[in-house]
Design a protein that fits this description.
The structure holds two protein chains of two kinds. Chain A is mainly beta. Chain A has one domain: Beta-grasp domain (Ubiquitin-like (UB roll), Roll), CATH 3.10.20.30. Chain A is built from one helix and seven strands, in the order E-E-H-E-E-E-E-E. Chain A has one helix at residues 20-26; strands spanning 3-7, 10-14, 33-34, 41-42, 55-58, 64-65, 76-78. In chain A, the strands form two sheets. Chain A has a five-stranded mixed β-sheet, covered by helices on one side. A two-stranded antiparallel ribbon of chain A has the order 3-4. The longest helix of chain A is centred in the N-terminal third of the chain and has 7 residues, at 20-26. Chain A is globular, with a radius of gyration of 12 Å. Chain B is α/β, with parallel strands linked by helices. Helices cover 29% and strands 22% of the residues of chain B. In chain B, the strands form seven sheets. In chain B, strands 1, 2, 3, 4, 5, 6 and 19 form a seven-stranded mixed β-sheet that branches. Chain B has a five-stranded parallel β-sheet with strand order 8-15-9-10-11. A three-stranded antiparallel β-sheet of chain B has the order 12-13-14, with no helix packed on it. Chain B is globular, with a radius of gyration of 24 Å. The chains are: A mainly beta, B alpha/beta. At the A-B interface, helix 1 and strand 4 of A face strand 8 and helix 3 of B.
Amino acid sequence: MTFHITVDGRSVPVVPGQTIGAALHAAGVRSWRSTRFGGRPRGLFCGIGVCFDCLISVNGRAPERACLLEAAPGDEVTTS
Amino acid sequence: MTYDLVVIGGGPAGVAGALTAARAGLRVALVDSGARLGGQYFRHSAVPGAEPGLGRFLRQGRALGERADVLLRHQAWSAAREPDGTLVVHCVTRSSSAPGGGAGERTVAVRARRLLIATGAYDRPLPFPGWDLPGVLTAGGAQALLKGSGVVAGRRIVVSGTGPFLLPVACGLAGAGARVLGVFEAGVGLGLVRQPLLALDKAGEAVRYAVGLARHRVPYRTRQAVVAAHGEREVEAVTVARLDKAWNVLATRVVECDTVAAGYGFVPQIELGTQLGCETRHDVDGSPVLSVDAAQRTTVPGVWAAGEPTGVGGWRLSELEGRIAGLAIVAGHGTAPRTAPAPSTDAAAGPRGDLTTARAPAPGGDPAAAAGRPGEQEMPGEPEVPGELEMPGELEMPGEPGEPGVPVVPGVLVRRRARWRAFGEALQRAYPVEPGWQGWLRDDTLVCRCEEVPLARVREAQDLGATDARSVKLLARPGMGWCQGRICGYAVSCLAGEPPRPPRRPIAQPVTLGALSESGEASDRAPADDPPPHPNPRRSS
């Protein structure tokens, strides 16, 4: 039932319907970008698309909210 | 094409309003950013569990899917009213996720004669040192992870904030296997039983959560809160403080944990309403909310609002308001949308709950809509209340001059709404945010997470003469980043010493320039050209 996505080359299992952010959290990855000024680590905060802290690039696209984006088989995720 | 009604938001208010109108024969579209209906409260995974109210909501959602165009994964970023009264909701949705492709965003404009705003609310966080560390989540964020994706936010979790929402969050996390080290309620907590109204309605629920917390040995401490989070790359510990009545710190201790779930009430989501020019008012807790009359009409012709955007009150109130809005929209269907601003009699309708009127259907109007008593069409699963449909208290729709009025909304719905609204207001009074939290902040504590504005810069702006939140924003930039002040707006207002103001932003969601430039021709792309509900292209392959 589960499928996999790759996070910086590493395989991460996903239950269908899970968001990218949830899949990362479940795999123990809780930060995936750094802030512009302070270089502070950021991941999920509001979890419902309001705060934009969880922006992430999937398949080379412009950053999107990890908390809203459902993971799809073969998605490639890059953290910074 | 132009729909009779477009609803923004697929939670209890939006679904109830859309279904009520669709069952009466109106052509209805509902847009929601999520992959499934439900909003925040009825958020559920692909295989939902058995939560109270959820089964009923899912039945409503299925019924709606058969009668209306449900546009999921559509984010409304703008709503506008054209000179002829047509309402246009601009959405972005994903058209393609080809690897290496562009943003893949596509714009969709949904046009309708009436609009129902049912956009819900989100958590109101308060800043504290370390609140931007990964592992610190809003209470709703932890809940969304669990309900929507089946992921427990952490192993050792501290829940903190104020309000009854902390209880189901803590119970859910503990039930899913997390060690919940404590629920720290900054308020008195007993507010729930001191309010006779609350004790009456919520006692059973409160007892259930109390039992749940006890079963998992979760301590519930009032007048305590997380006032700082510590760690390098993630949260590793928090400082829990004992507070006085004004939330000033009396004593502290350190608790080791890997996750914090914090929430201090809710912020109604009203951007699309303020974009359209809807009047706002301050709710009991000071939050700006959309002003509506007894029929849930805003002050802009053709625009209704239901649920949390009109005042936070929970899912039952939201569903009732959605139904009432739906009934009122059905009653007014067949008439031209008012082109003039709302008459002064509407504006003077005063406190919500007054009787109001809607126009009679024009001769030759939609027969389904004019077919008498739409209120008799109960929602699926709604228990009938025999004998309670008496006239007093009903919302009436007057006929032509000299003719008797036609009842629009059954009195029982009006009375239930009044009861749940009073309950929502009592909750807001029982769990206020006290000013002492400002003392938890240090000079280097970020107030605005997006623009990384620390408290010191806010104070600097005030020293330079910024006397209100807007001036602070212009000088120090809090609220100018990605979230547009949704997260820090409340805190900045408090620091500036004023109640939060309605948002003054031109768009409700960030949108790419590409999508923006494309939106000019979007009206040619009738959503009916796409087979709704929109499957994710990636899923269909």
